[in-house]
Each structure stands twice: as structure tokens, then as C-alpha cells.
Specification:
Blueprint (H helix, E strand, L loop, with lengths): L2 H11 L9 H14 L11 H8 L8 E11 L2 E9 H17 L1 H4 L2 E3 L20 E4 L18 H9 L3 E2 H5 L5 E3 L3
Antiparallel strand pairs: 1-2, 3-4, 4-6, 5-6
Length: 184
């Protein structure tokens, strides 16, 4: 993002719009997104046992459903369904419907949901291995691109996910802005 875009985001967050994305901006952004999340929070935290108790074993495809979608593209080709966990399907459907209205271009950058694999650089299962995470627009928001300095995922997209209780990785991890997961 440009300095002007960061300043605009800081104004939205109600903090000094100086264009410097540091600890105060990060804390304000996370507080803002958490304030949008439902109470009680619908998703488990990221402790492996709690994930397993809520979603089942990673890689267990018996919990997956094919969520019908519109306006979603993968590598320029239309996607008709997204395989996701049954527990996140309705929520993800609402998120994608809201995005279709406000950010249709981001839906054209769909990069996957279910993928039975470990977390990048780790041995524990990714939330993708449970069908409870989605990646969007990896070209502008890769795992190693710091958000918001280099990654370009709009705060407004993160707000859409936060309203359903999904964790936007860019705002909470400072990187991987393409990644959203149904956890606290």
C-alpha cells in the first residue's frame, strides 16, 4: 500500500494518520477487527486439540461440502464450488456474497480452501487441511509480503471476514494477507 493508503486506513481506525505502520497502528487495527467479531465467537482457537475437537482430524474429507459460489475464479477460470468444512460453509457463503457485491475483483484471485497439508514451515496441519481457511489474491498478498507495506489486501475485506469471526492473517500476523481462517 502507498503511504496515502496507510494514512487513510489509520484515519478509519481513529489513530494519527502519519503513514507509519507500527505498533500503535497494528494494535488499533487488531482491536478494530476484534470489535467486529461476533460474541460469542463461533470458531475455536488454534490449539491443535481444540481444532481437532471442533473440526475433526485434519485431512478427513467426510466433513467437507461443496459450497456453490458465483463470481469466483481460479487462474482465470470460473469456480462453481469450493470444498470447505461443513461448519464454515454458511459463514463462508455469506462472506463471498458480500465480497461479490463490494470486491468482485478479489474473488477472481481465489487460490484455494481445502488442501491437506501442514502449515508452511511447520509440522502441524494447516487450517486448509480442515477446509476452514481460504486464500485470495496471492500475487499481491503472499505469505512473505508484510501487510500493509507490500501486501495490498484492503482493510474492508478483512472487515467482511471479521464480521463472521474469521481471522485475517495479514492484520494479525503482519504477513500472509491472502489467508483467512475460521479461528479466534
Amino acid at each position: 500500500m502507498t503511504t496515502e493508503q496507510i494514512k487513510a486506513m489509520q484515519s478509519t481506525l481513529g489513530i494519527t494518520a502519519d503513514g507509519f505502520w507500527g505498533p500503535k497502528s497494528i494494535a488499533a487495527c487488531q482491536k478494530h477487527l476484534r470489535s467486529l467479531m461476533p460474541t460469542p465467537h463461533p470458531w475455536p482457537d488454534t490449539y491443535e486439540m481444540r481444532l481437532q475437537n471442533f473440526y475433526g482430524f485434519a485431512g478427513d474429507e467426510s466433513h467437507l461440502v461443496n459450497l456453490p459460489v458465483e463470481g469466483v475464479e481460479y487462474n482465470g477460470k470460473p469456480v462453481k464450488t469450493i470444498r470447505c468444512h461443513i461448519k464454515v460453509a454458511a459463514s463462508l457463503g455469506r462472506i463471498l456474497a458480500a465480497m461479490r457485491e463490494t470486491f468482485p475483483e478479489i474473488l477472481k484471485g481465489y487460490a484455494g480452501c481445502f488442501n491437506d497439508r501442514p502449515m508452511r514451515g511447520g509440522t502441524l496441519p494447516s487450517l486448509h487441511a480442515r477446509g476452514a481457511a481460504i486464500d485470495l489474491c496471492p500475487g499481491d498478498n503472499s505469505n512473505l509480503s508484510p501487510w500493509p507495506h507490500k501486501a495490498a489486501m484492503p482493510l474492508a475485506v478483512m472487515e467482511i471476514f471479521a464480521r463472521e469471526g474469521w481471522l485475517p492473517a495479514g492484520a494479525f500476523w503482519g504477513r500472509d494477507a491472502m489467508h483467512f481462517q475460521a479461528t479466534r
